[in-house]
Amino acid sequence: MESQTELQAGRGVCQRGCGLRLSGEDMSSGQHCCVEALRTVTEALEERSTTLEHETRMQRLRWNRREQSLLAQVTALQTEAQLSALQHQRRLHHLSSDLLLPDNT
Fold this sequence. Notes:
The protein is mainly α. It has helices at residues 4-9, 24-29, 34-100. It has 3 helices and no strands. The radius of gyration is 36 Å and the shape is rod-shaped. The chain starts with a helix and ends in a 5-residue tail after the last helix.
């Protein structure tokens, strides 16, 4: 691995125009081709971009499914709470009507 001073001095970095870091093989052989090196870097970046886009789509799908699941749970809980409130209201109404009506026995 090149030290920071070597990179600052320009050793290990292409001086012909692309500015890419050179491998030990490229440095020793002097066979570095800027166009091919830049194509390789571009292909790697495009592949990484495609991978990240796919991961983003998959994560979005997971989040959407999770959101739908949570919304369904909230809806079920709201319905349960409403039914429970109605049952308690009926009981209260029944009990209050029993208290208000005189017993004719």
